[in-house]
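Subject: Predicted fold for Leucine-rich repeat-containing N-terminal plant-type domain-containing protein, 585 residues

User T.R. writes:
Posting the sequence so we have a shared reference for the thread.
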Amino acid sequence: AAAAAVAAAAAAAAAATAAAAAAAAAAGTIPPWSGLSSLALLALDNNFLSGTLPPELGMGSLPADADLYFDLNLDLSGTIPASYAHFSTGQLHIAFTNISGCVPDGVVAYVTYNTAYCSHAEGSDALTLATLGVILSLVGASSEALQTWGGSPGFAGPNTPPRFCRVWAGISCDASYRVSGLNLTALGLDGQLSSLTFADISGLISPLDNLQVLVLSGLGLTGNLSDATGTGLDAFPKLQHLDISKSSAIVGQLPDRWAGLTDLRVLQVSGSGIGGTLPGSFASLQQLRELRAADCKGLTGSLPVEFGMLTNLEVLEITGSGITGTVPPEYADPTAVKAVRARSIAAAAAAKAAVAQREAQQALDDSAVMIGAVQPVAAAAAADTGRMHSKLSRRSSVSMLLGSMRTAHTPTRQHRLAAAQRAVAALSSSPADALGLTKLQRLLLSGNALQGQLPASYAKLKQLQVIDVSDNMLTGSLPTFYATLTRLTVLRLGRNRLQGQLAGPYVSLRQLAVLDVSSNQLTGSVPVNWDFLAGPDFKLQCLLLQGNVNELISAETKAVFEANSRKRMPPLGLAINDAGDPLCV
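User M.O. replies:
I've generated the structure tokens; pasting them so everyone works from the same file.
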């Protein structure tokens, strides 16, 4: 009985204390205080306040670093006033309230509120990058540069770019603070993303529809580009630069669907595992400046004649592969390319019709599934409970996230059809009277299995500076008309089956620094006037003539060349028949 009496007394005391606390707790609305110029702390948490947050607090003379505590007021509702961007270095605590909406840009020092910034709605650039950061963390990626991805991705104050534009390594933004460049290679994650596929990354970042530069070189990514659902680039209509080089585990054929990336300027796939034939449909890439596919040993087939329509192409690099056939004369023959153009337009139109016919209407949901998945996983990772450190749990979490990404960001019918339409439009608008690779500067086709003769018509490509077709099976003679390529600095024709004699007119090539015709079937000797190539006003530094039917340069002629080279000021040096000399590399 005594114990019961004590318990009853304690309960009564607790109730009285609670009642007293309730009586002492503030109620009503928050006054529109605006003139408290010296206020450092406003603590109104754990009360019974109702109504909305007064915008006047951010419109008066309160300091920008004031700390505002409104936690645990369940009857507070409405949104955070835009004027609260004024509190750019203070703290805003509104956990356990019914306040909804977004956080005004500028309030980033500390916000106990689980939502996005107003300038970045769900599914936007900030949330996409935050999710990507979670994925990279879960797969164990680590680098000093990646540490810059910590903290809020949002704005730091009025008229200040978001943090991901200012601080995050590998991210670049345009004037409107949209992500325009994503360079994961810059994070120093060499080979660390082997548990992710190219489709994982491209699908995850698909909301970045303003993306212009995507660099994924040397990350260890895997995947098959031939998988119709795994290319994931239809969402990037503005893409100008794509680099998946040094990715030997990315295999398959370059997708025809990439023909819809009609703003593409640079396509770099060197050192990747791509194979199959090069798509002629890429003729629609009318803005393409560089196509680089060095050391892609899986490439087969011939060089597409359709590439002759790439009138802005400056660099064509396809080396060390299984490419066969001839060096297409169409690349310098506008008349021949006109017929190719007509076929290409018809093929692109047929492809567009096929896309329109087979693609079922899909619901477009940019973020709902992704957000539902990323929040619990991100929270668990941040809590560091230890569960996330297990390899199995990490793999499970990554699978859950990426599965949601694929569902939420599978390329839609609209994306695919728009890409096909862009390809048709680009081909149709290509200049029918100005075809051919007239802007080509570097033709790099060494280490393939090309046959036939070097097209004499390439003498029309007046912008050529480098021609390297060494290590093929080319026949015929040295094209005399190449002497008109006055911008030529490097001409590598070594290790082929060329016959005939050296061309005297090549003495007009004043800019020529490297000439390699070694290991062919040439006869005769160096033309009499070639010694000028080694003299003043000429640039020759490397001359490789060895390995032909007979010795093309005698010891006496070699001495004349070397004597002429010593007259040049400043000295340039000259290596003759020494392929290992740095001047020849």
